[in-house]
Write a structure and sequence with these properties.
Residues 1-18 form the signal peptide. It comes from Ideonella lacteola. InterPro entries: ABC-Purine-Binding, PnrA-like, TAT_signal. This protein is α/β, with parallel strands linked by helices. The protein folds into three domains: 3-41; 50-154 and 279-304, Rossmann fold (3-Layer(aba) Sandwich); 155-277 and 306-364, Response regulator (Rossmann fold). The chain is 41% helix and 18% strand. The chain contains twelve helices and 14 strands. The protein has helices at residues 3-22, 26-41, 65-80, 97-107, 121-130, 155-169, 184-198, 217-229, 243-251, 279-290, 319-334, 361-364, and strands spanning 50-55, 84-89, 112-115, 135-139, 148-153, 174-179, 205-210, 234-237, 254-259, 270-276, 298-301, 308-311, 344-345, 351-353. The strands form three sheets. The protein has a six-stranded parallel sheet with strand order 2-1-3-4-5-11, with helices on both faces. Strand 8 (234-237), helix 9 and strand 9 (254-259) form a beta-alpha-beta unit. It is globular, with a radius of gyration of 27 Å. Residues 1-29 have low confidence and may be disordered.
Length: 383
């Protein structure tokens, strides 16, 4: 029973009581008074929990990207308890089948849906247009709708910090990156990794091998092996499994973890992990929905918001490198340090950012070039 109905009932009961008392029928008024009191003090009906669904591109046990998102989902459950009910579907392809998954989630009563990879953008837009009463959150995309907003983490900040450590530890001055798909997000991370390494070691060169998938451990292993054979002795990846770190462990080289703390996958090889904490954003988005404050827009969170960190630094990393890492982390947190500040040139010698110029988010979101020091060409650059 709603509060307004209870109030009306109580008011009516009181009026009846007054009438009965006026007629001298006190013995009949007592039960009515008790009913009025009970109606007024009855607890409000408990609202139905908000149903929230997550679509994952990989398995929750990938140790990287999807594992990090699922940790964020668990943080939601811890924060809101029985106010929400969460569910997930793993290994949803970045294809038309994603649309079927989203519609199935809606059919199950979910009112807030998180799509956690770039390739879900178009299917999610299509479904969002058909279901205006459902709120959609799309990770790493750039298209929005009245009931669909985007969110991302500044993974390039983690890549830069990884570069600081990698540049301090390499013996060959050659780093290797296993790239997933050549979109601006991944190219930006490769470049930032290189810039971080060059900040402590100007001799750094970076080699890249693309696998054109987010999660394919055999391909990632093959790519990592190729980089090591090409002279790279410290590796990073922008793929979703721990295969690159495992390969470095097997080959006696070093590597950094990506998206999640991967130290357990290659203890001897592991130099540290660039991690994403999705929890703070997922908590904010859910609170917005619960409180009726949700609105469309774009969010891009980093070290400042507690979304990016570099953790579990290896014991043998020199003290000066650890100090540099902490200095960068503190600067990113308080805004006193900017990664993408000119002069920056591409690997063909063209200036892409003038001296003292600071890249804005539009610039960062459209990066399609390699910085100086990265070998080769960006796939599909037409050169």
């Amino acid at each position: 029973m709603s509060l307004s109905k209870r109030t009306l009932l109580a008011t009516a009961a009181v009026a009846t009581l007054a009438a009965l008392v006026g007629c001298g029928k006190k013995e009949e008024a007592a039960p009515v008074a008790e009913a009025a009191s009970a109606a007024a003090s009855a607890p409000a009906a408990k609202p139905e929990p908000l149903k929230i669904a997550f679509a994952y591109v990989g398995p929750v046990g990938d140790g990287g990207w999807t594992f990090a998102h699922d940790n964020g989902r668990k943080a939601l459950e811890k924060e809101f308890g029985d106010k929400i009910v969460t569910s997930f579907v793993e290994k949803v392809p970045e294809a038309a089948d994603a649309e079927r998954v989203f519609r199935d989630m809606i059919g199950q009563g979910n009112k807030l849906i998180f799509g956690t990879t770039f390739g879900y953008m178009e299917p999610m837009l299509k479904v969002a247009a058909d279901t205006p009463d459902v709120k959609f959150e799309h990770a790493t995309g750039y298209k929005t709708a009245p009931n669909m907003r985007t969110y991302d983490s500044r993974t390039y900040e983690g890549a830069y910090m990884a570069g600081v450590i990698a540049g301090s530890m390499t013996k060959t001055n050659t780093l290797g990156v296993v790239g997933s798909i050549p979109i601006p997000e991944v190219i930006r991370n490769i470049n930032s990794f290189t810039l971080g390494a060059q900040s402590v070691n100007p001799k750094i060169k970076t080699k890249v091998v693309w696998v054109n998938e987010w999660f394919n451990p055999p391909k990632e292993t093959e790519a990592a092996t190729s980089l090591i054979n090409g002279g790279a002795d410290v590796l990073m990846q922008n793929t979703d499994s721990a295969a690159v770190l495992k390969t470095a462990e097997d080959k006696g080289k070093r590597a950094v973890g990506w998206d999640s703390d991967m130290s357990a996958y290659g203890p001897k090889a592991h130099l540290g992990s660039a991690v994403i904490n999705w929890g703070p954003y997922y908590i904010k988005a859910t609170r917005d929905a619960l409180e009726g404050q949700w609105s469309t827009g774009k969010a891009w969170w980093g070290v400042k918001e507690g979304a990016i960190d570099f953790v579990s630094v290896a014991e043998d990393v020199p003290a000066e490198a650890k100090a540099k890492l902490e200095q960068v982390k503190a600067g990113l947190k308080d805004g006193s340090f900017v990664i993408w500040k000119g002069p920056i040139v591409d690997n063909a010698g063209k200036e892409v950012l003038a001296k003292d110029a600071v890249a804005d988010d539009e610039f960062l979101g459209g990066i399609k070039f390699y910085v100086k020091g990265v070998d080769g060409r960006v796939p599909g650059d037409g050169k």
